[in-house]
Design a protein that fits this description.
The protein is 23% helix and 21% strand. With 203 residues, the chain is an alpha/beta fold. The strands form three sheets. A five-stranded parallel β-sheet has the order 3-11-8-5-4, with helices on both faces. Strands 9-6-7-10 form a four-stranded mixed β-sheet. α4 links the parallel β4 and β5. The longest helix is centred in the first third of the chain and has 12 residues.
């Protein structure tokens, strides 16, 4: 994880009490970027690091290729739609009820639990269980925070924007073993995280 370890000076302690998954490195301190990636992947999330933004369409194409035929993508994000729909016009649809994939950004990536935080800016007023079964999340390294409290604090500090509502955190990316699992209420979604480099590694 050399490409990530350069990017953060701060660390967070990935102890059993701070994560639902007991990590082998639970007694050691990990940079928050490495902790997020490990927790996210341990929960079944699919992670792709993208160093150059111009590589995003190629990675997006790979995700769609893995999905096979009859793949339909819906998005609320006009910027992502403009960037990607030109190369894949047949895949994008305007009816979210028919979509197999949701293309979206997010609010934050939470390291301590490997989760992805969304709000009404991404979801409108939908619940997580009302989304398509597969999510393609485009995020930036700078959106990784150590704890859920940090993420909520970040939302509260966004004074230049109207504070979003419907804040929801996706914590499960594979089906739970039991229906009464801690993750069942939050549901799960197969999630591809396309993580874009946006920090100056020379500083």
């Amino acid at each position: 994880m050399n490409w990530l370890s350069k990017l953060f000076k701060g660390t967070f302690s990935a102890s059993p009490s701070s994560s639902p998954y007991n990590m082998k490195e639970s007694q050691s301190e990990l940079p928050i970027d490495e902790a997020f990636v490990k927790n996210f992947k341990d929960k079944g999330g699919i992670f792709v690091y993208i160093e150059k933004r111009e590589d995003l369409p190629k990675v997006f194409q790979t995700v769609l290729s893995e999905a096979g035929e009859d793949t339909f993508v819906f998005t609320h994000n006009e910027h992502l739609e403009q960037q990607l729909s030109g190369d894949f016009p047949d895949c994008f649809i305007t009816n979210d009820q028919l979509a197999t994939h949701l293309l979206t950004d997010c609010e934050y990536l939470v390291a301590e639990e490997g989760s992805v935080m969304f709000s009404s800016r991404q979801l409108g007023q939908k619940r997580l269980d009302e989304l398509p079964s597969t999510l393609i999340v485009v995020a930036k390294i700078s959106q990784i925070v150590a704890t859920l409290m940090d993420a909520m604090g970040g939302l509260n500090r966004q004074v230049h924007q109207e504070r979003p509502n419907n804040i929801r955190t996706l914590r499960a990316f594979t089906p739970p073993e039991e229906k009464d699992s801690i993750f069942y209420e939050n549901c799960y979604r197969t999630t591809y995280l396309l993580l874009l480099e946006d920090l100056n590694t020379n500083e």
